[in-house]
Amino acid sequence: VIHCTGQGISSSLEFSETQLDLASIPADAATKDSIVVRNVSKVPQMLNVLLPPFELSGLKMTPICFTLQPKESQRLQVEFKPTKEYVDLLKMPVEEKPEAPEDGAAAPPDGEEPPAEEPGEMDAEEYSRHQMEDIREHGGRRWDAEGTVHGSWRLPICFKTASQGMREGRDQFCYLSVNTCVLPSVLAMQPPILDFGDVTAGQRALRPLVITNLAAEEGAQELQLEALPENQGFTVLNAPRAVGSKPFQFMVEFKPQLVQIYQCSLQMRTQNTRVQVPLRGKGVSPVLKIEPQDGVIHMGAVIYNKEAK
Q1: Looking at residues 141-160, what average pLDDT do you find?
Q2: Can you give the pLDDT at residue 166?
Q3: What's the DSSP call for residue 43?
Q4: Do 69 and 159 fall into the same domain?
Q5: Residue 75: pLDDT band by 50, 70, 90 thresholds?
Q6: Phi then psi for 207, rounded to 5 degrees?
C-alpha cells in the first residue's frame, strides 16, 4: 500500500472565463474575444502567456507578459486570424521539379544515372503526421470535418511572485482553453488588400474592389457593410447589394486630409459568412501647387465658333 498525501491551495489568479469559443470564420478573416484576469493575492504577480507558433495556431494574444498588483485586473485579448497557409498546414508543399531537357540539349553521359532522391525525404502522409505531432507538442489538437478546420488549444499561463525575479523561485501554471473553426470561403475579394499608395493630401484616389460569390449555387449573398471610421479618409461610394452569380464591384475612395499613414479594415458580412479587406494609404505633401486651388478653370460665356483663353 502506498500512502499519498497532498494539499490543495487556492490560485493567486482569478479568470472571468477559462474557455473561449471563438467565432467560426473563413480564411483571411479575423475574430477577437477577451477575458479578464485578476490578482486575488496580497502580493504582486508576474504573468507570461505561452503561445504556440502563429503558423500552427493562427492565434495572437495581447499582452503576453505583464505584472499584476494586488487586486488589480488586466484584460487579455485573443485574436484568431487564419491564413491560406494555416488551412493547408497538413498538405505537403509542392516543390518545383527541374524542367526536362529539350530536344538537342545535353543529356547525361552514357552510363551515368540521374541523381537519386535525397534520403530522408518525407511523403505526404509522413509530412501530415509530423505537422500533427508538432501541434500536439504545443498543446493543441486539429481535425477536419466537411470542409471545415477545427482547432483546440490549451494555452499555459505561468505566474509567480514578482519579488522572486525572472529566474528565481518556482513557476505556477494555469491554462486557458481556446477553440477555433475555419469555414469554407464563400466570398472572394480582388484585390485582397486595397493599397492606395501615396496620395497628395486634399486630393482623392479611387480603387475598385471586386467581390465574387464562390457558392452561387447556394443562392445570392446579401451583402452588408460596417461603417468605416470617419477620420481615416476612406469612403465606399456605392451601396451594397446581393451578390449572385455575377461579380459585384465596389468603388472605394481615399481622400487624406493630413500628411500621415492611414489604415483600417472594411468589414463585410452576409447571412453565411463575414470577411474583411485591409485598406491602406498614405497622405503626402503636394509637390506642385495649382492655381486655382480647386483645379477648375471657369471660361465664362463664349460665342459659337469663337475661342477663349
Answers
A1: 92
A2: 60
A3: S
A4: yes
A5: very high
A6: -135, 140
Overall domain count for the chain: 2
Residue 4 — φ and ψ, nearest 5°? -120, 135
Q: Residues 89, 92, 78, CA angle at the centre, nearest 5°?
A: 10
Same domain? For 36 and 145 the reply is yes
Average pLDDT, the chain: 86
Give dist(CA 162, CA 160) in Å, integer: 6
* Strands of the sheet with 31-39, listed across from one edge: 13-15, 31-39, 73-80, 59-62
Q: Are 138 and 54 in contact (CB under 8 A)?
A: no
Query: What is the CB neighbour count within 10 angstroms for residue 250?
Result: 21
Same domain, 29 and 163: yes
* Whole-number Å distance between alpha carbons of 283 and 200: 6
d(CA 72, CA 66): 12
- Do 55 and 164 reside in the same domain of the chain? yes
pTM above 0.85, yes or no: no
